[in-house]
Amino acid sequence: MQVTIQYSGQLKLAVGRADERLELPEGATLDDLVRALAERHAHGARRFFVDEAGEMQPTLMLVVNNRQVPAGTRQTLADGDEVMLLQPISGG
Amino acid sequence: MKRPLPTLTDEERAIYEWQIWVRDFGEEGQQRLKNASVMISRCGGLGGVVAYELAAAGVGKLVLAHGGCSRPSDLNRQLLVTYESLGKPRIDTMARRLLDLNPRLEIVAVGENVNEDNAARLVEQADVIVDCAPMFEERLAMNRQAVLQGKPLVECAMFDLEATITTVQPGSTPCLACWCPSVPPTWKRQFPVFGAVSGTVGCLGAMEAIKLIAGFGQPLFNRMLRLDLRDMTTQTVSLARNPNCAVCGSLARD
Q1: Most buried among B27, B124, B184, B230, by the most CB within 10 A?
Q2: Nearest C-alpha neighbor of B177 from the set A46, A47, A61
Q3: Chain A interface disruption, residue of B179, B183, B193, most A CBs within 10 A
Q4: What span, in angstroms and rounded, lies between the C-alpha atoms of B170 and B175?
Q5: Closest-CA residue in chain A for B160?
Q6: Kind of pairing, strands A61-64 and A19-23?
Q7: What pTM was computed for the model?
Q8: Cβ atoms within 10 A of the Cβ of B152, count?
């Protein structure tokens, strides 16, 4: 299946693009997606996705089809899902 | 906001006449603004515009927290800072500029940024909080106190040409810590900013505060509005409370 990923804030600058598509196996979860992205962007943006222990960053806000998924929720993705990775911002 | 509503003077009716015409707002809405107090955490590019709009709209009292002296790099966005005031305490210039616009305004000017020690005292003095700080430590401290004291909090932020805004109603909506439980390890103190971007979200934040105080319209409860001024797109994201949130997870759902 294929999902679309949108990036925001500093994360968009770190990965160097606003969006991309990713092929995932059927039954893949949001957690699988984040780990796959951490691998794909291992140089320069890994720490935005996972911490040093390889666990998902607790401050990475995950939004699937415009609905935020609370941290710790196991969510299975579906073909065509649009996933936004919102990096919290605080500029003023 | 439960204090008896004050009457408007003839001068106030003349000044606010055009906004009193706004549907669902009216003279009672203006009285509610006059009766209300708003705390603004940092009054720079974003919070300065919130403060200016609320002063213009006739909010009775503003509690402003902003430390330090003004620097040249403030001048591209911090509209309450002036060229002549460079090197001087920002908070003094900010208060003066607001009083130039609205001399009826009561201002509590605190020349320090929000921290764990002063957050409770600052929040106590206001009906509504607007969070515009550039540091997550300040935002998280303000959020914690707003939730503890049951005060609505408008959470607005920007980066580059992006902006986000949501409104927290403790006990019924997600709080900041529901989706940002700690300081993001990748956030940097210095961020790219045009004043027009921080000013845009500042105007939206001021409007949220006005709606909360006057009790009309639909604030951004359980929603985050996201703007990207680079391509002029907007998105509305549905937010969910985190039942394990260390700040508001124990509050009953309204």
Answers
A1: B184
A2: A61
A3: B179
A4: 7
A5: A9
A6: unpaired
A7: 0.96
A8: 23
